Amino acid sequence: MGKSFLSFAAAVILQALDNGYQYGFDIMDVTGLPSGTVYPALRRLEDACYVRSKWEKHSIAQEEARPPRKYYELTREGRDALAEARSRYRLLEQTQEPKTDKPKTSRA
Amino acid sequence: MTGMIKPNRFRFWLWLIRFVGLIVPRRLRADWRQEWVAELHYREALLAQWDKLNWQNKLDLWRRSFGAFWDALLLQPRRWEDEMIQDIRFGIKMLFKNPGFSAIVILTLAFGIGVNTALFTVFNALVLKPLPLKDAGNLFEARGVGEPGQRARRFSFPDYQDYVARSQTLVGLTLMSEMAATLGIEHAQQNAATGATQPQREDFGAVKCQLVTANYFHLLGAEMALGRGFLPEEERTPNTHPVAVLSHYFWEMAFKSDPQAIGRTIRLAGQPFVIVGVTNKEFIGTTPNRPTVWLPLMMRAALSQTESPEAQSWHTDRNLDGFNMLGRLKPGVTVGQAQAELSQLTAQLAREYAGVRHGENRNVAVKLNRAPGFVSMDDDENAAQVFLILPLSVVLVLLIACANVANLMLARAARRQKEIATRLALGATRWRIIRQLLTESLLIASAGSALGLALAWWTLSVLYPLLLAQFPISPIFRASMAINLEPDFRVFGFTMLMALMAGVAAGLAPAWQASRPNLTLALKGEGSVFGQHLSQSRLRNGLIVLQLAFSLILLVSAGLLARNLQKLQTVDTGYETARLFTVEADLGNANARQTETLRQQLEARLRALPDVQSVSRASRMPLAGPVAETAVALPGQTDAMNLLGAGYDIVSATHLETLGVRLLRGRNFTEQEANSGARVVVVSATAVRKLWPHFNDPGQALGQSIGIEAGQEKQPDNAATPSNTESVAPANFPVYQVIGVTRDTIQGLVIRHDGSFLYLPFRPGAHNAEQLLVRTKTDANRVMANLPMEIAALNPNATVAMKATSEWLKAQTTPFTIAANLAIVLGLVALALAVIGLYGVMSFHVAQRTREIGIRVALGAEPRGIQTLFIKQGMRLISLGILIGLLGGAAIARLLASILLDLSPFDPLTFGGVSLCLILVTLLATYLPARRATRVDPMIALRHD
């Protein structure tokens, strides 16, 4: 993935992360992209240092009796790349709303 | 949300993640699984919280977990990256751990790959590299296609004009022809004493001129360093525009890159030509030896050696079809379209000029060859066969190198058995071990090929000029031969391919073998006792046999070439060449009469020189390339197909004396006979034997009559003249009477001579015997040094070419010297590799069987018996190798047959000598380890691990 040219899908994913969705399935929901696109894209973005991933603290997971989660967040480069992408894809920001705790899935 | 999801409940999506996780690289697997499981848990929990965990959403969840499969799939390259880097890192570590071993195998492969790369670089430069022309991609060389069974013709000037006028598919066509001409320039030199300028002659001998149509430079996209190309008006009328474009290298050489060269005059064949341009350095024309000058095609007659009507009528006669044609396609036109159009035009022209053309031999179509490299292999099958031996030899060298390295790797793998067994025991798969070992051998091969490439480049840049310098050719000719040997992407690609193949060839078998050790034994360090590794030693033995066989093949060809060279160098030409040279003085075709006068004056002048013993005239230089042949008919012979061919020369009465050829029977012709045009001929002994096989004594031939085709008042043409041989019935051949028989001589190519030769008398005025043959009393060079001045005194306009006859002989033997030396070097290196390999294998056998030997000795075996045991084992390998090698050698020797001089390709001396040499050296290589075996101390050996 070239530093200055993000695909639209990648830009949408960055925008989603910027809006506070830091979890694979949330990103799929808000962007409508399939998981076969979102995950590989996240890995590529991580390789390109636009995104960094963080494991949730074990103690939290244990408390809730579930495996620890992996969260994704934007890096500074990612933010810059997103700003650049926004200037190219004008409607990017309007494609999604910031995260709330409401269910978003239309398939529900 | 706690407790909402029971952890032990079967959920298909989680199971799926676990399953898909199997293909994720191990390093990432745990993280990957955890991330996906957490994701699905989270989603499930959310859905449950929203109270929407219905079957629809469960299905959706299931569907989405399939995305994990794509995710896992896209992570696959990382697995390779990881393991590859691991392999490479480990491989490099192993290389440094064993620097001696690494150096040997890398050098071995570097040599093998180096010779292959060097040869490929030359092949690439001559054949594959496109011509350095602008848009070479749509330039095409046109070739005639003859009727079935007929020789294809090239093109005539009128045909060319018609193609140009009628073709729709081409941007342009250019017509070319090559001729040799003597070249001289005049330098104005300031006289230091008087201050007056005096012309100073500089002669360059015969150079290559290319005669081209005016659009040539423009069509090929040539740029000019100075001046201009040819103008359209320079193509309109014959013999009116004596202008010339110089090749860049000649301008550098003769004019020291002087920009004032434009407008100055050069003399070609005695004719003045005004320099109008100098080509760019990059432009080298379309042939490997670059032309020295380019001239307008219309000036062709000026360079013609002969005054025949053909020389004048070339631009109107459709039968003079000896020109080459090159064309450029219009954009968007395919080769097929252009070819079809030109073929159609050819057929059209054949119909229109059916009456004009001579009989059977004409083109029926045109084929377009992409103007690729310089050389298109065709015509001479013998030559192609001989050249086949080069790639074969270097491939053999590489195979030997690979076999050698494979053997070394096998030995090393045996030493590493413990390591490999440990890895296998710890759960490494066999495939993983093979990959590791292959990576190591590929690393070695890459290092070897990098070194080999450097080696090839260096050798070529040093060796090629050195080889060129071996040839007795003029500096200008040498400069014209410079080919571009810079490696390009093809060479790099080739070397990489070689590295890959060599790496796999040398590493696969050892890796295969090494990756299946008997774990228990290997871990206990007992893997190499009591012949546990029969299959492994079988592989090693096989490799050694191949090495011995291959090196024997190389040695056989080296031996044949060396024997052949020896024969060539001591060949008896039938006359002494040391004090003999030829002079050609030319004033051009337009001044044929003056030229003839000049030659006569020069002949007289030379005779008067104190150092000159004898002078004669001849139509060709002895030993300069193949002889001209003529058909000879016995009285009453009418069948044109079965005539005897014989070499001939048209010579003056003093020729035999000058050449120093002994008369066996009869007499030579006199000057009076020659001047009066008497039909008498002196023939060689072999010619007599061939014409009259039943004669017991050559003297019986005296007084016999023979018809000689070349005796017609027709000129021996030079090769560049369009071919137009109208055959005359044998009954109409001029009839000559044999008056003398000489001993056999070699006048043409040493390796193709057959001895039958005719000396026809030269009649001044009727024939052009352009060459003056001079025999000197002392050193020929001294006479040659002063000659240009003498000639300039006779006629300042004349251009001169001189050549010592011994140089022609040397020029003929030089390629064989080079070939023999190369073959010997290759053969010896191959032998050395094979012998070292054999020594290594025998030593290995001895080491492997140390304990066995100890037991044998302890049981009372004699040292001699043990030595014999090993020597016998070695002999088995050697004899098998020699057997295969001799068969291969015989096969390769047949390729050489056409260049062998009085030598059978199965020359017993060569085959026997080479085999004997191989046996001696290899016996030594087995004797030394075998002797070591006898020194085994049973006490130590039995305690041996």
Description of the structure:
The complex is a heterodimer of chains A (108) and B (945). Chain A is mainly alpha-helical and 108 residues long. Chain A has a single domain, classed as Orthogonal Bundle (Arc Repressor Mutant, subunit A). Chain A has five helices and two strands; from the N terminus they run H-H-H-E-H-E-H. Chain A has helices at 8-18, 24-31, 35-47, 58-63, 76-88, and strands at residues 51-55, 70-74. In chain A, strands 1-2 form a two-stranded antiparallel ribbon. In chain A, helix 1 packs across helix 5. The longest helix of chain A is centred in the middle third of the chain and has 13 residues, at 35-47. Residues 103-108 of chain A have low confidence and may be disordered. Chain B is of the alpha+beta class. Chain B has four domains: 12-74, no CATH class; 136-370, no CATH class; 384-571 and 812-943, no CATH class; 580-718 and 727-778, no CATH class. Helix content of chain B is 51%, strand content 16%. In chain B, the strands form three sheets. A six-stranded mixed β-barrel of chain B has the order 2-3-8-5-7-6. In chain B, strands 13-14-19-16-18-17 form a six-stranded mixed barrel. In chain B, strands 12-20-11-21 form a four-stranded antiparallel β-sheet. Chain B is globular, with a radius of gyration of 38 Å. Chain B starts with 11 loop residues before the first helix and ends with a helix. Mean pLDDT of chain B is 82; it is low at 1-8, 372-380, 527-532 and 714-726.
Total domain modules of chain A: 1
Estimated radius of gyration of chain A: 14 Å
What percentage of the residues of chain B does DSSP assign to strands (E)?
A: 15-25%
- Helix segment tally of chain B: 29
If you average the pLDDT of chain A, what whole number results?
77
Biggest sheet statistics of chain A: 2 strands, antiparallel
Global outline of chain B? globular
Helical percentage of chain B: 40-55%
The backbone outline of chain A, from C-alpha atoms, is: globular
Secondary-structure class of chain A: mainly alpha
Q: In terms of per-residue confidence, which ranges of chain B show pLDDT below 50 for 5 or more consecutive residues?
A: 1-8, 372-380, 527-532, 714-726
Return the structural class of chain B: alpha+beta
Here the CATH topology of chain A equals Arc Repressor Mutant, subunit A
Helix content of chain A: 40-55%
How much is the average pLDDT of chain B?
A: 82
Number of strands of chain A: 2
